[in-house]
Amino acid sequence: EPEVTQTPSHQVTQMGQEVILRCVPISNHLYFYWYRQILGQKVEFLVSFYNNEISEKSEIFDDQFSVERPDGSNFTLKIRSTKLEDSAMYFCASHGQGETQYFGPGTRLLVL
Amino acid sequence: GDSVTQMEGPVTLSEEACLTINCTYTATGYPSLFWYVQYPGEGLQLLLKATKADDKGSNKGFEATYRKETTSFHLEKGSVQVSDSAVYFCALSERDSNYQLIWGAGTKLIIKP
Predict the structure, then answer these.
(1) Rounded CA separation A11/B31 (Å)
(2) What's the confidence (pLDDT) of residue A103?
(3) Alpha-carbon dihedral of residues B67, B72, B76, B82, nearest 10 degrees?
(4) Which of A99, B10, B21, B63 has its CB surrounded by the most CB atoms within 10 Å?
(5) What confidence tens digit (pLDDT) does each residue in A30-70 have?
C-alpha cells in the first residue's frame, strides 16, 4: 500500500541553523501539507501546496519557512533560521481527488 | 474561524468497557469530519471519517456519526482493548480552506487490563 515517507526521522540542530525536512507524498496525489505538533499540544496546520504553489498558510508559517517541490516526488519544508520554539514533530500529508489526508511518520526536530 | 473541541483526557478505562470521546465543532460551511489516532511513538493514522450530515464512519469497531443539529462527531466503541490505548484526534476540513485540517486538542485513552 502506498504511503507517505519522511526523512530524517529525527533532527537535532543549533538555534539559528537552517534545516530542511523532506517528504515523499503518495505518487498520484496532488495536494500536499505540512503540520506540526509541539510536544503535548495539538496538531497545527502550517501550509498547503497545490499546483506548484502555496494555496493556504497559517500565521505560524512566516518568512522563516518555505516549501518547495523540487522534482516530481519530493516535497520539502525549510526553516531558514531555527528558533527554540520550532522544536516539534513535523508531519507531511498528501491527498488526491478524495479529501482524506494521509500522513507520514513525522520528523522530530529538536532545536538547541 | 472553524474550530474543534474535544473532551480532555486522559480517559482511563478497563478492558471491555464502553468508550465515548466527545467532539464538537464550529464551521462556517459544510465540513468533512475525521478521527485520527496516534499510537505511542507513531504518526497520525486515519481512523474514520464522515463527509455529510447523518453519515456514520466506522473502522476497527469504532463509530462516529456526523450530527449537524448538535455539531458533534462523538467517537464510540462498545468494548475497548488494551491495544486501543492511544491519542485520538477529532478534526475537520473544508473545501473553501483548501482542505486544511483543523484539529482538536487530542484525547489520550488508557486502557487497563
Answers:
(1) 35
(2) 94
(3) 150
(4) B21
(5) 999 999 999 888 899 999 999 889 999 999 999 999 999 98
Cα separation, A73 vs A56, in Å, equals 21
Beta bridge partners of A22: A7, A76
Contacts of A95 in chain B (CB under 8 A): 99
Say which of B36, B99, B105 has its CB closest to residue A99. Answer: B99
Inter-chain CB proximity B103 and A42 less than 8 Å: yes
C-alpha cell at A67: 516549501
Please tell me which of the candidates B36, B44, B100 has its beta carbon nearest to residue A45: B100
Which among B15, B4, B17, B32 is positioned nearest to B107, based on CA atoms?
B4
- Which grid coordinates are listed for B71? 455539531
CA–CA gap between residue A105 and residue A23 (Å, rounded) = 10
Nearest to A56 among B36, B91, B97 (CB): B97
- Nearest CA distance, B113 vs chain A (angstrom): 25
Are A101 and B93 inside 8 Å of each other by CB? yes
Q: What are phi and psi of B92, to 5 degrees?
A: -135, 160
End-to-end CA distance of chain A: 37
Q: What is the pLDDT of residue A40?
A: 82
Q: At CB < 8 A and 24+ separation, what contacts does B1-4 make?
A: B1/B28, B1/B102, B2/B26, B2/B27, B2/B28, B2/B31, B2/B92, B2/B94, B2/B97, B2/B102, B3/B102, B4/B90, B4/B91, B4/B92, B4/B102, B4/B103, B4/B104
User: Which DSSP category does B29 fall into?
Assistant: S
